[in-house]
Design goal:
single chain, 5-stranded parallel sheet, 60% helix
Length: 678
């Protein structure tokens, strides 16, 4: 029965890997950068666009604030990267912000950070894949018509790739990420070169007007709008924290390699984000979203323009107007890297889930690696939740982005505060002067990062709360309470199962009961096995739902001279489970210090439909008996020919003949010998 699913699993995921091969899945820096940083690198595809959408609420006049908002985002990005370089050097176990917060601020802060990160990882997949479909739709228009279905299909593909293992997904993602970087840098170099030679580069939307629902705003309202645009642009920072959770996947020295990768990430992402924002501003590229309060209007006709291309596609089309193939290249690579950007979450979410499971905040199954040494359960949960979000929000990037970055700035702020406490504790030990200076420098960086990210968190909460961030503010506490409840459950069970001296006291006696429905090979095997356990007492019981069948069973039992007494339980209402339970309870009441062992013969079948035809009564009875104190339940299997165990290699059995009071009878050795005459 299991061979067909196993074959499909092997085709999709590849052969299983031994635990000893885990070191082969570690990543060098050249692969770690595209695997862990693709989210932050790809955010240049939607972060500048979100700034323009928000500024457009105030009309075209607000667009001249674009460079300043972009510079503020770049400054925050560099501060966060510098801060996290201290984190990954100090904590290399993969716990990331959760470990930092738990160790330095306490368990509740750690769980808060973990809940924020788990929510944001899910949103990373949903936003990145949805943005990819939006960009790909600019080149292949049929994608735009079916972007929800296409996005869910992409999530499924990413899930399979990650289930195959980290190193293989790293190779699969490295080349497209580097090709995307090449395309963006080529666009920046070629664009600024053409501008320096006097070319008049204007985007296809340059002649359109932006009409906002709050035009001509000033004073506090304008400041609030700029802060909201800044908060939307801070989506460029998502993905930075993934490296701190993925440190165990780096080759040694893990901390230094992770810090170097973070530095490369910061420099590349800041340059790309700044370059695209500058080119969009210079070429007068515009983007509006009526759902957010901005409209793009063609002044010649007065009609709304609702089919504008994404900002990256507009800039690429303008810069490469004299070489169209590069426009197609940049557009396709942008869509592809956005798809791969979700891989940052696929590497961060399962590792964080494993750490949380190890600390008993999530089910222990999340700590188990699959056949390919990947945390398969975490990967599947992430994909499921992201798929549901994509479906619920129709793969709309602007609607999803409102839920974004709240969680990540919660983790940023708490983590940096925790790092300040970490350095204070180490400095209190009075290390040597050189080490002390290094620690003081690291503490200053983390303290500055905590202040800055804390301010940004307040800005994000204020400006985004009513636009969808409230959903995240509800989801995080719910996840927090769920993880605390799981931890309390595991702690309670641990205390309950803790061994004490009285646990090794042997029971006074063992009363064995074999359940019998008819006399056949499974019954004989169960009787033989029960006798082999040498119980204090042994009896067989059957339930009489038909008087004639019960009499025939008793006659056959006596004729075979079976050395185990058979007791027939009356069932006037034709029930099977209740009479057995009542009888077992009565045995326990007579001897509370004794145990009762119930042996249940069961068929082992090889086809799914056979499960519907066999063992149903046994399963119900077993489920009820498991709740009875002092009762042990033992399944005695009998493998049918259809079962996998017997396929292709039938069991060799020996037959023995013995004389009984009713004549000669055959007993199969495989079925057990139950007669004293053997």
């Amino acid at each position: 029965m299991s061979k067909a699913p196993d074959l499909v699993k092997r085709l999709l995921l590849g052969r299983a890997l031994r635990s000893a091969q885990q070191h082969e899945q570690l990543l060098p820096k050249r692969l770690a950068l595209p695997v862990f940083a693709s989210d932050a690198l790809s955010s240049v595809a939607y972060a500048p666009q979100e700034i323009l959408i928000t500024l457009g609420i105030a009309g075209l006049a607000a667009y001249h604030f674009t460079p300043w908002v972009g510079l503020a985002v770049i400054g925050i990005l560099l501060v966060v990267v510098a801060s996290y370089r201290q984190n990954v050097r100090a904590y290399t176990s993969g716990g990331g912000d959760f470990e930092v917060a738990t160790e330095n601020l306490g368990g509740n802060w750690g769980v808060l950070v973990a809940s924020a990160l788990l929510v944001d990882y899910v949103l990373t997949v949903a936003v990145s894949v949805s943005s990819a479909m939006e960009n790909l739709g600019a080149f292949v228009h049929i994608i735009e018509e079916h972007k929800v279905l296409a996005a869910i299909a992409v999530v499924a593909l990413l899930t399979v790739l990650n289930l195959r293992g980290l190193k293989e997904s790293g190779f699969a993602f490295a080349i497209p990420t580097y090709l995307f970087m090449f395309g963006i840098f080529s666009m920046m170099i070629w664009g600024f070169t053409r501008l320096s030679f006097g070319a008049d580069l204007k985007a296809e939307t340059a002649g359109y007007q932006v009409q906002g629902s709050h035009a001509d705003i000033a004073g506090f309202a304008l400041i609030f709008l700029l802060l909201r645009a800044f908060a939307s642009g801070c989506a460029a920072l998502t993905g930075v924290e993934a490296i701190s959770n993925g440190v165990p996947a780096f080759k040694k020295p893990k901390g230094q390699n992770a810090a170097t990768t973070l530095l490369m990430l910061g420099l590349v992402a800041a340059t790309m984000f700044g370059g695209i924002t500058a080119l969009a501003f210079i070429t007068d590229a515009k983007f509006a979203d009526p759902a957010q309060g901005s409209h793009l209007v063609d002044p010649a006709t007065g009609r709304d323009v609702s089919d504008q291309d994404p900002i990256v596609a507009q800039v690429a089309h303008t810069v490469f107007s004299n070489f169209p193939p590069m426009f197609g290249y940049v557009t396709l690579m942008t869509a592809l890297v956005l798809i791969l950007a979700a891989n940052t979450a696929y590497n961060g979410f399962p590792v964080l889930g494993s750490v949380l499971a190890q600390n008993r905040y999530l089910p222990r199954q999340l700590h188990t690696r699959g056949d390919r040494l990947a945390f398969s359960n975490g990967i599947i949960i992430l994909a499921t939740m992201a798929g549901l979000l994509i479906y619920a929000y129709d793969a709309d990037v602007t609607r999803l982005i409102q839920l974004y970055i709240v969680g990540v700035f919660v983790s940023f702020t708490v983590s940096q505060i925790g790092m300040v406490r970490h350095w204070n504790r180490l400095l209190a030990r009075r290390p040597e002067l050189a080490a002390r200076r290094q620690m003081q420098r690291s503490r200053a960086i983390n303290a500055f990062g905590a202040v800055i990210t804390g301010i940004v968190l307040v800005v994000v909460l204020i400006t985004k709360f009513t636009h969808g961030a409230y959903i995240v503010c509800i989801a995080m506490p719910m996840l927090f309470m769920l993880m605390k409840a799981i931890r309390r459950h595991y702690d309670r069970i641990g205390r309950e199962l803790e061994a004490t001296g009285e646990d090794i006291v042997l029971p006074a006696r063992n009363h064995a009961i074999v359940l019998v429905s008819k006399i056949h090979k499974p019954t004989l095997r169960a009787l033989a096995y029960a006798r082999a356990t040498r119980p204090s007492t042994l009896e067989a019981i059957t339930v009489s739902v038909d008087a004639q069948e019960a009499r025939q069973l008793q006659e056959t039992w006596d004729r075979l001279d079976l050395p185990v007494p058979l007791k027939i339980l009356d069932s006037p209402y034709r029930e099977i489970t209740r009479p057995v339970l009542e009888y077992v309870k009565s045995v326990r009441r007579r001897s509370p210090r004794d145990v009762v062992t119930v042996f249940i013969p069961e068929y082992v079948v090889g086809h799914w439909w056979e499960h519907l035809l066999h063992n149903q009564s046994a399963l119900r009875l077993k489920g009820r008996l498991l709740f009875q104190p002092g009762v042990m339940v033992t399944s005695v299997p009998w493998q049918l020919v259809s079962s996998d165990r017997l396929k292709g290699r039938p069991e060799q059995v020996a037959r023995r003949t013995y004389e009984s009071g009713g004549g000669r009878s055959d007993v199969t050795a495989g079925g057990g010998s139950v007669s004293d005459h053997d």
